[in-house]
Design goal:
single chain, alpha/beta, about 35% helix, binds adenosine-5'-triphosphate, GMP Synthetase, Chain A, domain 3, binds magnesium ion, three-stranded mixed beta sheet
Length: about 375
């Protein structure tokens, strides 16, 4: 069983900082906590450089984790120095995170459901499904956001035809661009924006955290996250950074895609994010001149069978059709461009099943938990 973050926090609350005489959790010195099975990684954020103290605290953290959680746990502790904490910790009042007055409203407090759209394999249609799912949900009257987390290959600007730059509020927050009823944010919008938001380094995690914290998302019923392809460290970090309500896995019926989809389901299971279901994209090809024909060029019902085997809901099939590709490329997803078309109806049925799966999920496990994001100055 995977070690839970709360267990780690509880163990680290037993480690006392010798100078401030309080535990590391109360002092808010543990950042970027990630757990995966027996692997625990975090940053121990100290207000000043002190190698001896850092080594001592690292040893004590590992000892507490071994004593209170699991003697075989593997710890990976990075020491970070944040001098702006020094005055705060050594000043008079307030001192603890609990006592500190809130500086801004909690991150994503207005977002009810956060859904990741993922796959293992690239090019299977995650972004196409994410875009059409977002538009279909918005067409039901819901408030919907779409966050393109594919930092290295963003799709949202093309799929929604965004050429303008987003505005910035007086609080220096980025305002999502609204298209086809969906509030959009993508790294692709910001390529040349250097003033209001400073994107530090290539660290995907910190970019995604900024997307969460430094965007004026406002009230949303659904936030859809378009993930980059794969199930590696980047994806794992993103899904641990955001308080996900659930995940939608996209696959084509091909064996190679199914193998990767299985890895996607395993990744979400590992981090305790419920899989809302699997979408079979490019399920069959329908030629425009013979719309009654179905060609199962990538195999038949592969993703549907995978869903059955893994005992996760099957959310529906989307045919491979020229109008799906053309509308995406021209900046209006098919659900907005031709809502009555057969392809659009497939996406709307999928959106409906996602809504149903969310109702079940939220009844079983409560709404999305609060997110705790710290961005160091
Ligand atoms: N059902 C479909 N019918 C026709 N074309 C499709 C369909 N689904 C996706 N495509 C096209 O296939 C290409 C890849 O789709 P998309 O970008 O959505 O995949 P992706 O999984 O997000 O890719 P990446 O892994 O690069 O993020 C796009 O050109 C898209 O328009
Ligand atoms: Mg994509």
């Amino acid at each position: 069983m995977s070690i839970h973050k709360e267990q780690v926090k509880s163990a680290l609350s037993q480690v006392i900082h010798p100078e401030y005489k309080r535990d590391l959790i109360t002092l808010d010195l543990i950042q970027d906590l990630i757990t995966q099975e027996k692997y625990i990684s975090f940053t121990l954020e100290l207000p000043r450089k002190n190698d001896r103290l850092a080594d001592q605290l690292k040893r004590e953290c590992t000892a507490a984790i071994h004593q209170f959680i699991d003697p075989d746990a593997v710890t990976d502790i990075t020491v970070g120095i944040n001098i702006s904490r020094q005055r705060e910790l050594e000043g008079e009042q307030p001192q603890t995170s609990a006592e500190r007055p809130p500086q801004q409203e909690p991150v994503l407090s207005g977002v009810k459901n956060i859904i990741a759209v993922a796959s293992g394999k690239g090019g299977v249609g995650k972004s196409t499904v994410a875009a059409n799912l977002a538009v279909a949900l918005a067409q039901t009257g819901a408030k919907v956001g779409l966050l393109d987390t594919d930092i290295y290959g963003p799709s949202v600007p093309t799929m929604f035809g965004v050429t303008e730059r987003p505005n910035i509020t007086t609080q220096k927050k980025l305002v999502p661009i609204e298209k086809h009823g969906v509030h959009l944010v993508s790294m692709g919008f910001l390529v040349d924006v250097d003033q209001a938001m400073i994107w530090r380094g290539p660290m995907v995690t910190s970019a995604v955290k900024q997307f969460m914290q430094e965007v004026a998302w406002g009230e949303l019923d659904y936030m859809i996250l378009d993930l980059p392809p794969g199930t590696g460290d980047i994806q794992l970090t993103i899904v641990q950074t955001v308080p996900l309500t659930g995940a939608v896995i996209v696959s084509t019926p091909q064996t190679v895609a199914l193998d990767d989809a299985r890895k996607g389901v395993a990744m979400f299971n590992k981090v305790n994010v419920p899989v809302l279901g699997i979408v079979e994209n490019m399920a069959y090809f329908v030629p425009d001149d013979m719309p009654e024909k179905k060609y199962y060029i990538f195999g038949k019902h592969g993703a549907r069978k995978l869903a059955e085997r893994l005992e996760v809901p099957f959310l529906g099939e989307v045919p491979l059709r020229q109008n799906v590709r053309e509308t995406s490329d021209s900046g209006t997803p098919i659900v907005a461009a031709d809502p009555a078309s057969a392809s659009a109806i497939c996406f709307k049925e999928i959106a409906n099943r996602v809504e149903q799966a969310l109702i079940v999920r939220n009844r079983e496990s409560g709404a999305t938990g609060k997110i705790d994001i710290k961005i160091r100055p």
